Amino acid sequence: xxxxxxxxxxxxxxxxxxxxxxxxxxxxxxxxxxxxxxxxxxxxxxxxxxxxxxxxxxxxxxxxxxxxxxxxxxxxxxxxxxxxxxxxxxxxxxxxxxxxxxxxxxxxxxxxxxxxxxxxxxxxxxxxxxxxxxxxxxxxxxxxxxxxxxxxxxxxxxxxxxxxxxxxxxxxxxxxxxxxxxxxxxxxxxxxxxxxxxxxxxxxxxxxxxxxxxxxxxxxxxxxxxxxxxxxxxxxxxxxxxxxxxxxxxxxxxxxxxxxxxxxxxxxxxxxxxxxxxx
Length: 279
Known about the structure:
globular
C-alpha cells in the first residue's frame, strides 16, 4: 500500500503527506508510534525512552541523513535528465535498505523499553493499535469503490501539487487513470497489521523476561514483510510499478514552470537535511 510516507525517499517527496524534514523526523515518528503515542509511560520509562531516542536520533542524523541526501541528488539528476522506472526503482531499493537498517538499529532500544512495561500497559498499547486499525478501515476499506477512487485521486493530486504547483487537466487525467488502475489492497494491509500486532502481543505477554526476547523483537521490527501473504506481495509490487509508471509519465508532461517549482522545493529539502546533518 502507498497510504503513508513509506520507505522510499522518492515516494516521501512525491507521494507522502509529509513535511520537508520527514527524513530526519522519521526516527522520532517510528519510536513514538510504537510506544509513546500508544501507551502511558511512568516517569522512569519516559526517561528511558527519551534517553534512547536522543541516542538514536544522533546516529540517524549522522549516518542516514547523508544517504537521504544522496538519494535526493540522484532523484534531482533523474528529473533533469528524464525520469525512468529504473532510476526510481534504484532509489526505492536504497531507501528500503535504509529503513531496514533503521529498524535493526532501534530494535534493541525498543526491547529494553518493552521489558519495563506492565501488563496493563501492554493491554493499553494493543487496544490503541486496534483503535487505529478501525480508523484505517473506516478511511480505506468501508467505502464504495467509487469513493475510494475519488479519495485516492484527490490525495495524490494534493501531494503532487505540493511539489509542482497546480496541475493541468491532462495531468489530472493521467493521475485519475492511475487511481482507477490501482488494485485495492487496504483490507489485506490492515489484516497484515493485525497479524503483526497479535504476534507482538504474544511476545510481550509471554517472552518479556526470557533470554530470547530481544531477538524476537528484532525479528518483528526488521522482518515485518516476511509475513506478507504472497497475494498481497504481488498486489503491492504491481501497485508500486503502476505508481512509478504514472510518475514517469507525469514528469514528461511537466511544464517548465512546474519543473522549476519541483526542483526548487527539492533544493529546499536538501538544504534542510544538510543543516540537520551538521547539527
